[in-house]
Amino acid sequence: MAKTPHKSTTAASPPASTPTASAGHSPEDAYRPTALDIFELSAQLGPATQDEVDLLIARHSFAELVDIGNDFATARATRDALRILGVAAAFLQHAPASDQGLVDLSLDVVRIGAWAAAEDARANEKLTGATASERTSAASAEAEAQRVLTQARAERRKLADTVRAVAQSTSVDVAVTHALAPAAHGAARTSPDASLELLLQQARALLASKDPAVKRRAALYRLTPARLDGAAALAKAASQAATVVGAPKVVVTQEKVDWWDGATLTILQTVVRAFQGARETHPGVPRVEFVSLRKRAGASDAGGDPIGGGGEPKGGVVT
To answer: Which of 62, 207, 219, 257 is deepest in the core (most CB within 10 A)?
Structure first.
């Protein structure tokens, strides 16, 4: 029978365990997430580490997680992660302590899950070309670095010939040979910029020489302060270019994205089950469930494993 106006105005206040819930409102309304995307949620909860993720998914091998993750699109896991972890975080941050204690996991599990989901989404963006401009920029930077190093090698050969011609000295010839092949003579640095710097030392010494014959040969072979300044600038540019060319390349593969998908779903499963168990004890605990991945989570209400089986595989070649 419907409530009379008298009953509705004298009804007791909502239980303390759901402070913002009221008649006609579910616990889910009381703990709606405020983050607009998974990156914002992860930022709100704080960073995690790969070791922390591994701690929560230790029962699965790398291959098992890849197989799990290959069965669905990353975007589905991202959508469910934002909703599930957002509600879970709000509850574990704002619900009364007595209610929080009904859920058998800590806020740290949610934090780690949000970080894993954000890493998953980020890896997928890189793989699918959302950061194509970044890859183009990196390729351009490497091409420019290679050009600078090629120019430095050419200048090294030219300056070596000039120094020999100006010096007309056996001892300088030996020093030039060492500069051109520093690795063969035990030098710690063997890059083109290191060779140029060694040659510049010899060239500057020749320019500072008081020997009239050396001064005349320097003029004949165009060994000038301006040329040495240009070579020094090129040596500095080559040093920077070497760090670009030698930097390790971070490659995101489909297999790695699938692994993150599987890891994220595994952690979400843990959170969903913990909240389901708590809700059976107290209806004030918000309902936390899969939506985008409902087919894979269908068995979780009965305590089964929501991971794997059914759905549409991503397809494609795993590299």
So the answer is: 257
188-218: b (≥16 Cβ within 10 Å) or e: eeebbbbbbbbbbebbeebeeeeeeebeebb
Can you say whether the dihedral through the CA atoms of 64, 65, 70, 72 is positive or negative? positive
Euclidean distance between CA atoms 162 and 218, whole angstroms? 8
Is the separation of the CB atoms in 99 and 17 below 8 Å? yes
Cα dist from 287 to 42, 73, 81, 271, 279, whole Å: 21, 24, 14, 11, 7
User: Using an 8 Å Cβ cutoff, are 191 and 155 in contact?
Assistant: no
- Give the separation between CA 173 and CA 121, rounded to whole angstroms: 59
What is the Cα–Cα distance from 258 to 274, expressed in whole angstroms? 25
pLDDT tens figures, 43-98: 999 999 999 999 999 999 999 999 999 989 999 999 999 999 999 999 999 999 99
Can you tell me the distance from the alpha carbon of 77 to that of 155, in angstroms, rounded to the nearest whole number?
55
CA 239 distance to own-chain centroid: 26
- Of 239, 279, 291, 262, the closest CA to residue 91 belongs to 279
For residue 125, what are its two tokens?
């963006």
Region label for 113, one of left (φ > 0), alpha (ψ between -120 and 50) or beta (otherwise): alpha
Report the alpha-carbon distance of residue 182 to residue 202 in Å, rounded: 15
Q: Give me the torsion for CA of 70, 76, 80, 82, rounded to 10°.
A: 110
Per-residue exposure over 97-111, b if at least 16 CB sit within 10 Å of its own CB, e if not: eebbebbebebebbb
On the question of pLDDT at 317 being above 50, the answer is no
Quick: pLDDT tens for 210-220. 999 999 999 99
DSSP 61: -
Q: What is the tens place of the pLDDT at every residue in 134-155?
A: 667 777 888 898 899 899 899 9
CA distance 286 to 224: 79
Torsion, CA 137, CA 141, CA 142, CA 146, rounded to 10: 150
